[in-house]
Amino acid sequence: MIFLYLFLTFFEIGLFGFGGGYAMISLIQGQVVSRWHWLSMGEFTNVIAISQMTPGPVGINSATHCGYMAVKNADFDAPMAILGSATATFALVLPSFILMLLISKMLMKYMHTTTRRGCVFGPASCRSRTSGAAALLLMTAENFSTPDNPWHFYISIALFVATFCGHQIPKNQSYRHDRLCRFCGSLVTILINRADQICLTSPINYSFDHSNIKVWRGDSGTLADKSTGCPVITSVA
Predict the structure, then answer these.
(1) Distance (Å, rounded) from C-alpha 24 to C-alpha 83?
(2) Which is nearest to 74 in space by CA: 22, 140, 5?
């Protein structure tokens, strides 16, 4: 039954998803995360990251990975997950294929008419809005964290600002944008690995005070998170 729902869901996304792959991200998220709960928000964010690194349109790549993860999370084996991936991908491209077959004969005849221009450039004008909505939907506490976890939160904000500034570079200087993204990714990796090393090398002592649990870092005496051992900015009464 999940394969039927996958087909209908991504067929609907392909039918109404104007503006390119990035404009489809918010539609895909609304279906696979919010409506059907096939993926968690963290898994969907990983899917978007992998789709951007994989050759091909980001919308089709997202459908491919979402179909695989949806079936895999439903406790099916790998061959069935691959079938789910193929189902989602086929359903996403099928509406465009059908529409192009229907209008291909009329396209050359009405190419220079005002109606044709409006049909083509009208939805394209909304692309930046839908892409911005997709970006805002990904800016959740699960992805960006909160100020209670300063390492994750402020690094995410810095990376977002750096990427935004990089997109302002003209297209003829895209190599600078590529270098900037590489630098930011390397910097984030170094900082996160450094934070993990600090957390792993410091012992943790647990002490109980009535019903409250105080977790203290053994070497510095600072308050630490019980689950990770990393320092947290909070107070225990």
Answers:
(1) 22
(2) 5
Could you tell me the pLDDT band of residue 139, with boundaries at 50, 70 and 90? confident
Q: Which residue is listed with tokens 């939907």?
A: 137
Helix, strand, coil abundance in the chain, percent, nearest 5 = 70, 5, 25
The pLDDT of residue 204: 44
Tell me the C-alpha distance between 194 and 217, whole Å: 17
The closest of 63, 69, 71 to 4, measured between CA atoms, is 71
Asked whether the beta carbons of 47 and 29 are under 8 A apart, the reply is no
Residues 6+ away with beta carbon under 8 Å from 165: 180
Q: What is the pTM of this model?
A: 0.63
Contact criterion met (CB below 8 Å) for 135 and 164? no
* Residue 204 β-bridge partners: 217
Supply angle C-alpha 154, 157, 158, rounded to 5. 85
β-bridge pairing 204-209 and 212-217: antiparallel
HEC assignment per residue over 180-218: HHHHHHHHHHHHHHHHHHHHHHCCEEEEEECCEEEEEEC
Hey, CA dihedral for 47, 48, 50, 56, is it positive or negative?
positive
Of 116, 137, 124, 114, nearest to 30 by C-alpha is 137
What is the chain's mean pLDDT, rounded? 74
- Which of 71, 94, 92 lies closest to 24, judged by CA? 92
